[in-house]
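batch job 7 of whatever, protein = TetR/AcrR family transcriptional regulator
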Amino acid sequence: MNEEWNLSGKRYLAGFLYAFHAEAGVARGTFYNYFQTREDVLKAVAASLSDEMNQKIWAQSVDIADPAERMAIALRQFLHQAMRDATWGWVIVRIGLVAAPLSETVERGVMTDLEAGIRLKRFQVDNVHATIDLILGTGLMAMRSILEGHTEPNYPEQIAKMILKTLGVPDAEAHAIASKVLEPLSEDRTS
């Protein structure tokens, strides 16, 4: 990936493994009975991180009826989290590029909002599978651009607006949705 990932990502994984062994009282040999490689461990960690983030996003947006708003919140929260925590972001990007889908809950969340948007005639989609690839792929590459320092502070909002427009939301409305105040997520391990 890049130098930052190589240093911080490996440190993150090493710290996770140390903490896991200590907390669970599990020897390294026993631990690796469940995981063949460090990459398998990283996949599990990335899935756990994204699931945790997705649960916080769900809690924040569960009462929002508009699937376009829910989708924009999810995209923006994931991208802003990468801005706040580069190590977290690189774990997600590194695994997201080789182990798509990153986690079932992320894909299920996108699918739920996408299907609701189609049902409500909010989104115009020719192919659901291709649209999920478009949303997840764009989000992942946007996160990578953020982590590489090639973006502006409002890049998450720009990406959310573009995704909504691609789904058929009119420009002005997509802009308004993507520019809404983003409430902070609950403070656990993701910040």
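notes: The mean pLDDT is 82.
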